[in-house]
């Protein structure tokens, strides 16, 4: 599911809602644990990955955070800070010199907000991410919401990682069984994820990319 809303603030800002990070399948066989048996690293769309996962949503131009610290306000009190930091350390390897940083700032001052949203669970979503981008082909805000379903452990953090990867510029889901699969079964950052993030953050925002 995807929706696009236009908002006018100096230039065009777009708000895109991304579908449920964990997807709707609530079968108990993978709740509470990660299922690595679904990994299929050879599955990738037959088009340019940066275009497919990112540029197609911005008139074939790449869109990402600037090369600076991106501040995260953690409003979901269920999130263990050490576990979150492990996720950020892993993602930061691929978006250098941009860096995701947990910050003790009010959400309005943060670049990325993470909230607990019990209502999402009633929509059969484990998580969602919305993001706004604007002038200069840069992201300016991302809002992550994590559901209240009875999932925990690996899958909870897999969904959190899934939404954080949406927040740094992977806007479309993957079919490789890794963390960007939907539904999400595990927390594996697959080669497809790396092949989007590394070029996305290496080249200037707004770089033309075609299928
Ligand atoms: Zn998603």
UniProtKB/TrEMBL annotation:
Entries under PROSITE patterns matching the protein: PROKAR_LIPOPROTEIN
Name of this protein: Peptidase M10 metallopeptidase domain-containing protein
Source lineage: Bacteria, Candidatus Harrisoniibacteriota
């Amino acid at each position: 599911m995807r929706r696009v809303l236009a908002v006018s603030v100096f230039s065009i800002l777009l708000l895109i809602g991304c579908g449920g990070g964990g997807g709707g399948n609530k079968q108990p066989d993978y709740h509470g644990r990660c299922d690595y048996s679904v990994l299929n690293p050879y599955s990738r769309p037959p088009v340019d990955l940066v275009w497919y996962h990112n540029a197609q949503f911005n008139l074939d131009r790449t869109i990402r955070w600037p090369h600076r610290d991106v501040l995260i306000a953690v409003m979901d009190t269920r999130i263990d800070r050490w576990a979150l930091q492990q996720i950020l350390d892993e993602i930061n390897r691929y978006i250098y010199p941009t860096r995701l940083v947990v910050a003790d700032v009010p959400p309005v001052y943060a670049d990325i907000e993470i909230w607990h949203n019990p209502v999402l669970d009633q929509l059969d979503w484990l998580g969602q991410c919305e993001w706004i981008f604007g002038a200069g082909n840069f992201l300016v805000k991302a809002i992550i919401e994590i559901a209240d379903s009875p999932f925990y452990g690996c899958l909870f953090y897999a969904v959190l990682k899934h939404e954080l990867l949406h927040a740094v510029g992977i806007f479309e889901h993957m079919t490789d069984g890794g963390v960007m699969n939907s539904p999400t079964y595990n927390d594996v950052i697959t080669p497809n994820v790396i092949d989007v993030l590394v070029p996305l953050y290496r080249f200037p925002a707004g770089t033309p990319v075609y299928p």
